[in-house]
Design goal:
The protein contains five helices and 40 strands. It is of the alpha+beta class and 575 residues long. β28 and β29 form a beta hairpin.
Length: 575
């Protein structure tokens, strides 16, 4: 069955391809339709008319008319040659093109041609041939008794023309027998010309004619349509076919400067006194090589509005810190809140600080152990240090009364050390929590809260007053911390209520559940059916498609089929 389907499909395709190829062959049916030889008025009052006998427009670029006299010496008459190689000449379906001599313009009315020739056609015998651009003969018309096969019995009399017979509307006879296809008639009063049209091929290097630049092409300096080269750096001027030196590929097809990473490590925003020359920003070079800051800029503020460049020639040695002050670069760190960002000159973010808020005088906002925090020990151009804990000063005794002539000694109380995440306030000498970014703290778990004193998570249950003791016969559930019956906690200890009719006790939950009825069983086993599949629908569908294709082909090329039948009849009549 599968072989039948394959055969039907390939048969339908073959029929369609056959008709398509036949139509293409017939569509190239360009022929010589009329020839006028010289007359008594002038031997040069001549023209040759060609006709497109097909249903499609045909390209006749570089097609030529050639004259072959009885002496068999061919001469080129005229050609349909465009001005340049990018222009293509077409003859529309069922249209004429006319090649004339200059003398034919003296006719009344004058006959104007599409191309002009100067050859003189013999009025006794000769051939006119139509050749394509490859010099392959498309059509040939001969006249006179001295010419070989397929000639006209006699040349046209003076003032007459050799004209191809009309067999149907817009259809001329072409049996390849000149004596049957042509007749001698009076010339037309009005000749058709100027039907030939030109198309400019904007991409001569591409097969087929392109009247517009294809979407995936562009024109190069030679005028060819080429596939545009891949631009590896869409953010840079001009097309970059490779990643330029000193750049790396970033996101969104951008190329960014290949700069070494640097870190902003310390800010001093609030100075006790005059700020000029004292506020600083510190940068650390974690690399093993020196870094030139010429390709770096920094922004001050919570937005990217104010940016600053580093002094020319400023370097940071490998593994070193460098602080630059506001008298070297005219920047201002607000005393309220601000932040600093370090970027490359092409806008790539290198590093940034967390925003500080209301810093105390002479305290820096520093990156210590990868945490941004305040410290009372500024270390410009050096490794950052945490705040120093200052002990309480000893008490000063004034107007102390002597006891037995001895001045009493006042001993300063020993201060309890602050926790690891605290520092001692120089103003109050008390321990205070070291400010850290909220984003660093891990959220407390369910049932916990953060202590304001230690900033650590504590259990809510541990802070609740002691639980009330359970009543007699109860115990505390270790999972919920609630009281429950001791009897209920023991599986099977209580007397269970019997299950209803149609129920059973679930051994997992000890609860009653409905008894699922068993599935009814058939008294016989199912038998296998061997019904043949009906595939006639698909077979007839494919046959229908093939039949429709055949009918459509006959209708579409009915004129060509009629001409073929006419040729067969003429050949049979001649026999």
């Amino acid at each position: 069955m599968l072989k039948r389907y394959v055969f039907i499909i390939f048969s339908s395709l073959f029929i369609m391809i056959f008709f398509a190829q036949t139509a293409q062959a017939v569509s190239q049916n360009i022929m010589i339709s009329q020839i006028k030889l010289g007359d008594a008025t002038s031997a040069k009052n001549e023209f040759v008319e060609i006709y497109n006998n097909s249903l499609v427009d045909v390209e006749i670029t570089d097609w030529c008319l050639s004259y072959l006299s009885s002496s068999l010496s061919p001469r080129e008459m005229a050609c349909f040659t465009p001005e340049d190689d990018s222009i293509h000449i077409f003859l529309p379906s069922h249209s004429f093109a006319l090649a004339t001599t200059a003398g034919i313009l003296l006719y009344e009315p004058p006959i104007i041609g599409d191309i002009e020739f100067s050859s003189t056609l013999s009025d006794s015998a000769g051939y006119v041939r139509l050749l394509d651009k490859d010099k392959i003969e498309i059509d040939k018309v001969g006249w006179g008794t001295s010419t070989p096969e397929n000639n006209l019995v006699e040349p046209s009399p003076d003032g007459k023309v050799l004209s191809r017979k009309i067999i149907d509307i817009n259809i001329l006879q072409d049996s390849n027998v000149n004596s049957d296809d042509f007749e001698i008639i009076e010339p037309k009063l009005l000749h058709e010309y100027d039907s030939v049209y030109e198309l400019h091929d904007i991409c001569p290097n591409i097969i087929d004619i392109q009247i517009d630049i294809p979407d995936d092409r562009e024109i190069d300096i030679k005028g060819d349509c080429i596939t545009p080269p891949t631009d590896f750096c869409s953010n840079l001027l001009y097309i970059q076919t490779i990643i330029p030196d000193g750049y790396v590929r970033g996101d969104d097809n951008d190329c960014l400067l290949d700069l070494l990473p640097l870190k902003i490590t310390e800010l001093l925003p609030n100075i006790g006194g005059i700020d000029t020359g004292k506020e600083f920003i510190e940068i650390y070079n974690p690399n093993i090589s020196d870094v030139d800051l010429a390709n770096y800029i920094f922004y001050v503020g919570t937005d990217d509005v104010k940016f600053y460049s580093f002094p020319i020639g400023l370097h940071i040695d490998a593994g070193q810190y460098l602080a630059f002050y506001n008298d070297e670069i005219n920047f201002t760190l607000l005393n309220t809140t601000s932040s600093v960002r370090l970027k490359s000159i092409d806008g790539n973010l290198i590093d940034e600080t967390l925003a500080y808020n209301d810093p105390k005088e002479d305290m820096t906002w520093a990156l210590i152990d990868e945490l941004w925090q305040y410290t009372n020990r500024p270390t410009a151009s050096g490794e950052n240090l945490p705040s120093l804990i200052i002990p309480d000063p000893p008490a000063i005794v004034a107007d102390v009364e002597l006891v037995d002539g001895i001045v009493p000694i006042v001993v300063a109380s020993e201060l309890k050390p602050c926790a690891a995440n605290q520092y001692r306030s120089p103003e109050t000498n008390r321990c205070r929590l070291i400010p850290v970014s909220e984003s660093v703290l891990t959220p407390c778990k369910d049932g916990q809260y953060r202590s304001e004193e230690t900033n650590r998570c504590r259990s809510i249950i541990s802070d609740v007053a002691p639980l009330v003791a359970c009543s007699e016969g109860e115990e505390r559930n270790p999972e919920t911390n609630r009281c429950r019956s001791i009897v209920a906690a023991v599986l099977g200890a209580s007397e269970l209520k019997p299950c209803d009719v149609g129920q059973e006790r679930n051994p997992d939950t000890n609860r009653c559940r409905n008894i699922v009825s068993a599935m009814p069983q058939a008294d016989y086993a199912p038998e296998k059916t061997n019904e043949a599949s009906n595939n006639y629908v698909l077979w007839w569908s494919l046959a229908g498609v093939g039949f429709v294709a055949i009918v459509y082909g006959i209708w579409e090329w009915r004129q060509e089929i009629g001409r073929l039948i006419q040729k067969i009849r003429l050949l049979r009549r001649k026999k």
